[in-house]
């Protein structure tokens, strides 16, 4: 069965640079979620999209933005990167309440 | 605000024994409670879930119980195996906006062979 796809899987950036993370949800899933997970921490909800419209917002910094495109893929744009942005970034998709997670993008900010 | 407490933070059991992880949620309107297993550096994987209209659900060696009155839910793993070793997260869905998850802080389970 098709799963959630994320790219890139690993990303290394310098402070103050920008990064773009991509997510391709499971076909026919109508909702996409972004989570940030720091080392040894639980995933923290950032933002979600339902049918290409932003549907909920969590602890997403103002330096970050996201959108969902007509083909349902989503991108998380991160600017003015800080050391503290180093984390695993997961995208999840759902059709209803059960969310299925992608493999994540490990972002390292040097 | 919405909160999910999870304990214990670490749990070591002997292979073949049972493991129990407990969570408490704050939003009485939460109605869906999934459990995820996460191995180091990998994605959280849904292992079992329960909806608020059910008190218990079982899938082979894994079961989840829900006490809506007390706002508690628990994960039970029987006949534990070394491959059960991982971090387990409980979650509750927020009823504001979409079905975003509020995760517990995780339990690191070690099954000793």
Structure report:
The complex is a heterodimer of chains A (110) and B (113). With 110 residues, chain A is an all-beta fold. Chain A is built from no helices and eleven strands. Chain A has strands at residues 5-7, 10-13, 19-24, 31-37, 44-50, 53-57, 64-68, 74-78, 87-94, 99-101, 105-109. Chain A is globular. The model of chain A has no long low-confidence stretch (mean pLDDT 94). With 113 residues, chain B is mostly beta strands. Helix content of chain B is 0%, strand content 56%. Chain B contains no helices and eleven strands. Chain B has strands spanning 4-7, 10-14, 19-25, 32-38, 45-51, 56-59, 62-67, 72-77, 86-93, 101-103, 107-112. In chain B, strands 2, 4, 5, 9, 10 and 11 form a six-stranded mixed sheet that branches. In chain B, strands 1-3-8-7-6 form a five-stranded antiparallel sheet, with no helix packed on it. In chain B, a hairpin with a 7-residue loop joins strand 9 and strand 10 (101-103). The radius of gyration of chain B is 14 Å and the shape is globular. The N and C termini of chain B lie far apart (41 Å). The relative contact order of chain B is 0.34. Chains A and B meet through strand 5, strand 6, strand 9 and strand 10 of A and strand 4, strand 5 and strand 10 of B.
Q: Would you identify the regions of chain B where 5 or more consecutive residues have pLDDT less than 50?
A: none
Q: What sequence of helices (H) and strands (E) makes up the elements of chain A?
A: EEEEEEEEEEE
Question: Roughly how much helix do the residues of chain A carry, as a percent range?
Answer: under 10%
Percentage of residues in DSSP E strands of chain B: over 45%
Helix-strand sequence of chain B: EEEEEEEEEEE
Mean pLDDT of chain B: 93
Q: Mean of the pLDDT scores of chain A?
A: 94
Number of strands of chain A: 11
Discrete helix count of chain A: 0
Straight-line N-to-C gap of chain A: 37 Å
Tell me the span between the first and last alpha carbons of chain B: 41 Å
Note the overall shape of chain A.
globular
Number-wise, the strands of chain B total 11
Kindly state the percentage of residues in helix of chain B.
under 10%
């Amino acid at each position: 069965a098709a799963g959630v796809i994320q790219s890139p899987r690993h990303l290394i950036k310098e402070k103050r640079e920008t990064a773009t993370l991509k997510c391709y949800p499971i076909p026919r899933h109508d909702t996409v979620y972004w989570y940030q997970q720091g080392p040894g921490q639980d995933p923290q909800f950032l933002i979600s999209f339902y049918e290409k419209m932003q549907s909920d917002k969590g602890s997403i910094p103002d330096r970050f933005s996201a959108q969902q495109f007509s083909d349902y893929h989503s991108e998380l744009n991160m600017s003015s990167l800080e050391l503290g942005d180093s984390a695993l970034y997961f995208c999840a998709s759902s059709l209803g309440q059960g969310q299925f997670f992608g493999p994540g993008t490990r972002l390292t900010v040097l | 605000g919405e909160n999910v407490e999870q304990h214990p933070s670490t749990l070591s059991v002997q292979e073949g024994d049972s493991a129990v992880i407990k969570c408490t949620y704050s939003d009485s309107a939460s109605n869906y409670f999934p459990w995820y297993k996460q191995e180091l550096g990998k994605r959280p994987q849904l292992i079992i879930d329960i909806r608020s209209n059910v008190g218990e659900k079982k899938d082979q060696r894994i079961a989840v119980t829900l006490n809506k009155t007390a706002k508690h839910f628990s994960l039970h793993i029987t006949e534990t195996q070394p491959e059960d070793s991982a971090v387990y997260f409980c979650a509750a869905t927020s009823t504001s906006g979409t079905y975003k998850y509020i995760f517990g802080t995780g339990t690191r389970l070690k099954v000793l062979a």
